[in-house]
Specification:
The structure is a homodimer of 198-residue chains.
Chain A (H helix, E strand, L loop, with lengths): L38 H27 L4 H14 L6 H8 L3 H13 L3 E5 L7 E5 L1 H21 L5 H30 L8
Antiparallel strand pairs in A: 1-2
Chain A binds a DNA duplex (30 and 30 nucleotides) through α4.
DNA sequence: CACAATAGCTTTGTAACTTAGCTATATGGC
DNA sequence: GCCATATAGCTAAGTTACAAAGCTATTGTG
């Protein structure tokens, strides 16, 4: 009973007294504010957080079905994908997945050992390595497709055709924004202690 | 020169011979196919992969600015968020972030040690713990808000008002889809060796 | 009142990374 | 052509981010 008292006023402190400051916003673009507040945007961020965790869990499951770890599977399908538009090197994959080259080197090595990726020297730059997925890997992934299809249908059941179109349109900009934001973060980290305006 | 030969036909094997099988689809809902193919959907998946990696990197950067690890920061803001709609326990957070309770216990312990989270026994269920963020944490996050705002403006520069509305509408369904898909994966994993139709 | 289920904690282990340092090649100025 | 600088990839070493298993204390359930 009286669990109603658990109701939390999002503007009040622990004693219930409302602080004078008008809650600093976590985003400022007007398109992303609603009635001057960032509540909707925050909900968006937390929703994204919850969704991406489940997306990753699903990917890990698919990976496990073909005997790979999540990252291995991700790297494998990324090579297959990137291969469609040109030569793929370790650094290409690392940039695409936004992780260190060392990690890609390591995991690609394991994929090679499994016979799923082939590694030959690039013809144009002998420092580089040309990665491609083997026929064995294609068969493995083709075998996974039915399950993948069920998983994707379930995962994206609420998405309609227009949503997909719009997101496809949006993604390049969002990725660019991600690169810009991480660059910005690098700058903020480098200059952080300099200013101290409370 | 003659790098043009690197052009990869996405339907051909290494020798250039086209396999007879018509590329198994990774999704089957008609809304998500284009001209009967899953190419657009695949592009969507890979774009999402690239974007979420950058999103996480940005979050890690924000976390670092306040002396937290990425997961610590994520857990902290999740508690703050979940607190707005009711009591928050370890398992609430674990379910929201789709990770193990053990991990939440561990990280929350560190946040408590830093004075950012308070932990008291739930009044209604003495097995449970009631988590809440401290005033110190609120100040810390408020101090981060300006940077966060710059980062979010950059990250989501390409998103317009209608996009945000639509995604907000979509997210609950997507999260539910994620839960359903991971459940499905559990089933697939449990029954995988049973059938073997090559 | 037993019994099963649930919440959380601790321990223990593993997988997922990164940083630093190295070598080989490439590239741009002089 | 040659030197300085940058880039590609590899390796080794270390750290962090997790999860599985097992325990205790509680709570619901027949």
């Amino acid at each position: 009973m009286q669990e109603g008292s658990a109701l939390t006023d999002r503007r009040s402190g622990p004693g219930g007294q409302v602080q004078g400051e008008p809650r600093r916003l976590t985003v400022s673009r007007k398109d992303l504010l609603r009635e001057g507040g960032d509540g909707a945007f925050r909900a968006f961020v937390h929703g994204l957080l919850a969704f991406t965790a489940r997306l990753e869990a699903t990917r890990n499951g698919l990976a496990g079905l073909v005997g790979l770890s999540g990252p291995q599977y991700t790297i494998l399908i990324s090579i297959a994908h990137l291969e469609e538009e040109g030569d793929v090197s370790v650094s290409t994959v690392a940039a695409h997945l936004h992780c260190s080259g060392a990690f890609v080197t390591l995991e690609v090595g394991r994929l090679v050992k499994k016979g799923l990726v082939s590694k030959r020297p690039s013809t144009t730059d002998r420092r580089r390595v040309r990665l491609s997925v083997t026929e064995k890997a294609r068969r493995l992934l083709a075998g996974l497709a039915p399950t993948q299809s069920r998983a994707n249908d379930t995962l994206f059941a609420s998405l309609d055709a227009r949503d997909l179109d719009r997101i496809l349109e949006l993604l390049p900009g969002l990725i660019a924004g991600g690169d810009a934001a991480t660059a910005l973060m690098g700058y903020e980290i480098a200059t952080r202690d300099r200013k101290e305006d409370a």
